[in-house]
Design a protein that fits this description.
The chain is built from six helices and 13 strands. Strand 1 (31-34) and strand 2 (40-43) form a beta hairpin. The protein has 349 residues and is α+β, with helices and mostly antiparallel strands. It has three domains: 1-45, no CATH class; 75-107, no CATH class; 146-348, Immunoglobulin-like.
């Protein structure tokens, strides 16, 4: 219709009836068009296809839907897979020629070689800039925490003195903990220190091995396991071992020894009875500072053994042992191990 309107509107048409009928039927034949101004223009135009009305079958859209592909058999799938893996006609492996595979492998080899070299260079610079013996940046040193032994079932010690099976595990844990403190091992590896101040060895070379002071197992008295291999558990008077955590370069107490105190946190105060400390209730300064495991190879942390000699039977109490000294924090609400350790004690007959 658009083509017909362009040639009909604003033009004068000849008076021949046949041309007029052909025009009204939608057929445009080669003809002369006379403009209003008197000019004549000849124009060749292709015949347009006749517009036939849609049949009913053309309105059935189901026939225009895409037909599903026929199902392929297993043999066809296997053949396609074989062709994909190796196409003998094109000499392609997995859809690529030998040249294409060579270029891809070369690209990825160069890429990963570059990444590995960059990672190795960064790691080398990092290891070159830090010291294996002490932290490079150590602006703030937190106060030490405290650990205890035995430590088997959390911080809970519960047993019956007359039941060997109930306390044997605690005695075995104490033996393992004190094995490195045997007198023979200490005399062979460490030196006997007579002074009471800090054992400073900063004048040595950075990589030189530092000497360590002896801490003998026999110094722990009734809690050493030498006189009583059951550590008082068979008598209802258990021992526990307390140790201050190691901090590289830390000087506890600012020149004064840090001491240990234990008391009842929850329960009747009189239920704990007499408390004994071995060898003393302090951590001697001669075991500090600690220079790290690479330089302080044979270092043995000092231990305070605590014996509860008069604990009441069948009374559940919660015991707290604290470090006390200058710069020590033992009442942190967020860290239960900072400067203190808490455990439950339940001794039965």
């Amino acid at each position: 219709m658009g083509v017909t309107e362009r040639y009909v509107t604003g033009v004068q048409i000849g008076s021949e009836d046949e041309d007029y009928l052909n025009l009204t039927r939608g057929k445009l034949l080669p003809h002369k068009v006379i403009l209003k101004h008197g000019q004549e223009l000849e124009e060749e135009q292709e015949e347009l296809a006749e517009h036939q009305p849609l049949e009913q079958e053309d309105l059935n859209f189901e026939r225009w839907k895409r037909r599903p592909l026929p199902k392929r058999t297993l043999h066809q799938k296997i053949d396609d897979l074989k062709t994909y893996l190796w196409n003998a006609e094109t000499n392609e492996f997995m859809g690529r020629s030998g040249k294409s595979w060579s270029l891809i492998l070369l690209f990825y080899a160069a890429l990963y070689t570059f990444l590995a070299a960059m990672f190795g260079g960064c790691l080398f610079c990092l290891m070159w800039s830090i010291s294996p013996y002490h932290p490079t940046f150590n602006d703030r040193v937190m106060p030490p925490g405290m650990t205890m032994a035995p430590h088997l079932e959390g911080h809970e010690i519960a047993f019956n003195a007359s039941d060997r099976k109930s306390w044997k595990k605690y005695a075995r844990s104490m033996d393992e903990y004190l094995r490195s403190y045997n007198d023979g091992v200490q005399e062979r590896k460490n030196m006997r220190c007579a002074h009471n101040g800090y054992f400073m060895q900063d004048d040595l070379e950075e990589s030189s091995e530092r000497r360590a002071c002896q801490f003998k197992r026999s110094w722990l008295g009734d809690c050493s396991g030498l006189q009583d291999p059951h550590y008082g558990y068979s008598q209802g008077r258990p021992c526990v071992l307390l140790r201050m955590n190691r901090i590289l370069g830390y000087l506890p107490g600012q020149g004064k020894p840090v001491n240990v105190t234990c008391g009842v946190k929850k329960g009747p105060p009189e239920a704990l009875g007499e408390i004994q400390y071995f060898p003393k209730s302090i951590f001697d300064l001669k075991y500090y500072p600690y220079y790290g495991k690479l330089r302080h190879v044979n270092y043995s942390s000092p231990v305070v053994a605590v014996r509860f000699a008069g604990v009441q039977y069948d009374t559940h109490i919660q015991v707290q042992c604290k470090l006390n000294g200058y710069g020590i924090i033992n009442d942190s609400p967020t860290d239960r191990y900072l400067g203190s350790v808490t455990f439950s004690l339940d001794v039965g007959a």
